[in-house]
Amino acid sequence: MRYKNIIRERYKLIIKYIGMLTMAIGGFLLLPLLVLPFYPEEVIYIEAFLTPAAIFFGIGFLLWKLTSVKDDVTLSLKEGGIIVLISWIVAIIASAIPFMITGELNFTQAIFEATSGWTTTGLSVVDVTKASHVFLMWRSIMQFFGGVGLIVVMLSSVLHPYGFGLYNAEGRSDQLLPHVKKSTKAIMYIYLGYIIGGTILYVIAGMGVFDAINHAIPALSTGGFSTKADSIGHWNSLPIEMVTWLLMIFGTINFATHFALLKGKFKVFFKNGEIRLLLFIIAIFTPIVSYFSLSGLYTSLPATVRRGFFEVVSAISTTGFSLDTFSNWNQFGVLAMVLLMWIGGGTGSTAGGIKLYRIYLMIKSVWWELKGYFLPPNSVVENYIWRGEQKLYIKAEYIRETANYIFLYMATYFIGVLIYLAYGYGLTESMFEFASSVGTVGLSIGITSPDAPVGILWTQTVGMFLGRLEFLVIFFAIAKIVKDAKYLATE
């Protein structure tokens, strides 16, 4: 009986946090209306945002205000996962409503677009040539909060005596500072600072202010939503591409590693395995992709390398910006991009994919295993890698957990590819499109469109959601809810 009371108290705290986040989501829905003074003719869209904002803020307020919690209740990682899972579902549903109220998208399309926004994927079924400024801004706002994370936003702004489980549940395993609240504030400062700096650089490079804001946010959040149908390629401007390179690379780097860089610890920064692997991959794949896939499409070497470098960085950072279509690429180039999208960016960053840390750890694990054969039988070796500002000593369970995650990721990926094949798409196209979905990348070979089959859109939606919240958080949260419900139902 006592344990049942403890469970109930914990779920009260869970409900209270969900209420707090639901209120925040209601507030987020008001933010795109800030563009109305600049585009007054779009005031017709105000109701599409005010109505869901009022509803979700009201629901959140009731959940928060009417839930009493004892002071000694704490949250575990799995309980934090429940909050993350439910709050992200609420955010996606709330964000889809404005698209449906105006008739811009149907239910499936609206959920797809909102999921793509919050997971910072960038695949889209919106015709940006016809979309209003309010909705273009709303897409960027979703990617802003999806990139930094709902939990980071909440923990950086409110008191949170039980916040560490929440912090970890949303994929943040590295603390920048000893205190969780200070860590989340540091993340917000870094994130906002880069976005403001990126916007200024875009304007200097020749973008208009509105376009600059709506490309700085998706570039840093590795989201990839654009205000132009042909993405960054619309401008055909090397300075604009260079700003985008910088933001995409910044977006794919772990925030703890950023912190070391901003503190001037350059040696520590370049000791990080993720940084070394990222630079190595870019250096290897750029010439390979440029030569074997793009040399026949461009007449000059600079144009070939420029395109190759941009697309490689976009894929490995899981941003999804592009300079051109992929429909004329050969299979080598397409499969090279698939491999990059599998790998993805840094842990604790805004990027998706398997993550550089996991790939680096498995490479080091193979090396350590081979090296171990040449060591004396009784030798004791402490293997470590650099992560953030410190050494991380690797235990056997870390490698096992990483291998399990990669297996789960790839199993999900191939199930998704099989669904594409069942709908009649080719193998290469299916592999590319679902790698982009589950890796939260946003590059498309042409399958994603408003006319895509409903089953394909829902497959991509589920893939994006699983990829952003990293599978295990979702599975553990659902398992805990079911287990606790069964326990509470027993006499």
TrEMBL record:
Pfam families per the UniProt record, alphabetical: TrkH (PF02386)
Transmembrane segments: 21-39, 45-64, 80-101, 144-167, 188-210, 242-262, 274-294, 332-354, 405-423, 456-478
Superkingdom to which the source organism belongs: Bacteria
Gene Ontology biological-process annotations: metal ion transport
Keyword Membrane: yes
Keywords: Cell membrane, Ion transport, Membrane, Transmembrane, Transmembrane helix, Transport
Record's bilayer topology term: Multi-pass membrane protein
GO cellular component, one term: plasma membrane
InterPro entries attached to this UniProt entry: Cat_transpt
Signal peptide: none
GO molecular-function terms, A-Z: monoatomic cation transmembrane transporter activity
Subcellular locations according to the entry: Cell membrane
Major site of localization recorded for this protein: membrane
Keyword Cell cycle part of the UniProt annotation: no
Homology family: Belongs to the TrkH potassium transport family.
Entry protein name: Trk system potassium uptake protein TrkH
